[in-house]
Structure formats: C-alpha cells, structure tokens
Amino acid sequence: MNKTVIITGAAKGIGRAIAKDFAYSGYNVCINYNTSEEQAKELCQELAKDGCNIIIYKADVTNRQEVDKMVDYVIGTFGNIDVLINNAGISEYKLFTDITQEDMEKMVNVNILGVFNTTQSVLRKSMLPRKDGTIINISSIWGMVGASLEVAYSTTKAAIIGMSKALAKELAPSNITVNVVAPGAISTDMISSLSKEDLEVLKEEIPLGKIGNVEDVAASVKFLASYEARYITGQVISPNGGLVI
Ligand code: NAD
User: pTM of whole model > 0.90?
Assistant: First the structure.
C-alpha cells in the first residue's frame, strides 16, 4: 500500500517541491494550504493528470480545529498518515527594537504553535496508535546560528530544533522518528524581498557559490522519510551550500 504524507504550506516554494517529489515517488499526498488556493488547485491538477494520488486541504496551522479536521479527512481518504512534514512558515526582516508584540505572537503562532498543532494531531490520531511514523520539521540555518534583523524568525526556528530533539527522544520507543531539515538561502518568495545586490553578497558568502533551489531541500526531506534513514532520529540536516558548517 502507498504511504501517505501531509505537507503543510505546500502550495508554493519549498513545500510545493516536496509535494511533487513525494507524489512522483508514489506517496499519497495531502497538500495543505491556507491562502494560496489557486496555486494549490493548479498543483493538484498537474499531479493528478500525471496519475499521482493527491488531495488538497485548506487549513490554517495555527487553528487546532482546522488542523484536526484536515487530519481526520486525510485518514478518511487514505487510511492513515505515515509522514508529516511541517513546512509552513513565515519570516520578517525587522530590527529587534521595532518588533511589536503582535509581530512576535504571529511568528510564534505560525512557526511554533503550527508545528505543535499538526504534530500532536497526527500523533494522536494515526502515528501513536500504529506505533509508526516519520516527522520532518523545516527549520532554517538561522535557527542554528541566528540572523541579524531576523531575531523573531531565528527564535522560532531554533525552537523547532529543540522541539524536534526532545520529541525524537520521547517518540523513539514508539518507533516514530523526528528530524529537522534546516535550509540555507533558497530561491522562493521568502527571500524575494532581498535586493539584487543583497542576493549577490549572499551568493559570494556561500562556498558552493549559488543560492539553493527548492529541489535541493526536497531531496534532503525525501531522504529522511526513506527506509535508508530508518536509524536517524533527532538530527538536523542542513542543505545550505556550505554557508553554515
Ligand atoms: P513560502 O512563503 O513560499 O512558503 C511558505 C508557505 O507556508 C506558504 O505557502 C504560506 O502560505 C504557508 N503558510 C504560512 N502561514 C500558514 C498557516 N498559518 N497555515 C498554513 N500554511 C501557512 O516560503 P518557503 O521559502 O517555501 O518556506 C518554506 C519553509 O522553509 C518555511 O518554514 C521557511 O521558514 C523555511 N525556510 C526557507 C528558506 C528560504 O530561503 N526560502 C530558508 C530556510 C528555511
């Protein structure tokens, strides 16, 4: 039987590339989106046309009821959930002293509470009863080393690493692995606000000499979900071109 994966925030960017990679590898895929309905529908049509098993589901990861309904729907459609990829996230460039409490709460809600909601729901409803599963959380190099002007973002991405390591220990006896993919600079909407000049400077700082692409990240995620990665848990893999070593 095909394995089933939920990918949050998968209508565009890195999540979209992950969804394609898993769909073409024979997984049943649930593409979660919140606001990018057009892109989610278009991706679903493209993959379904190629014979992939795809569903899309609108749910705000900060809303527990919506998340629970999505998880029930995926289980009702495909039977269970084997892999959860917490990819949805937001970022913001601001001086620390300019960050409002509202900014901080929004960042924490999406980037931390969102991961908590989906993970707890999938664990309770599918992975723990079956004593099987793989959870992959998307952090960032800035959660490892911190970024100036991105203190709020770095805080939440570091929290994801801490949460994943603790959860890996708690869930190992239940045969569930938890790992982190912490990308470097990847060409998506998230870094589109950087000027051409800033991108050039960034490129020069990357030992491999280029900004990463979404497929580079999807490849790491796919590896962590594979049978070959069965003895890996609580680890951070960072596709970053050598920017952080
Ligand atoms: P993106 O903005 O293209 O994708 C993020 C997706 O998350 C969007 O589709 C967005 O609608 C969705 N999302 C946001 N809030 C949501 C919510 N409440 N509920 C459901 N979905 C929601 O950016 P991306 O670059 O593809 O980012 C994907 C992940 O990779 C993020 O977690 C990001 O922090 C991480 N990341 C990106 C980079 C980069 O350079 N692009 C680097 C390191 C880590």
Answer: yes
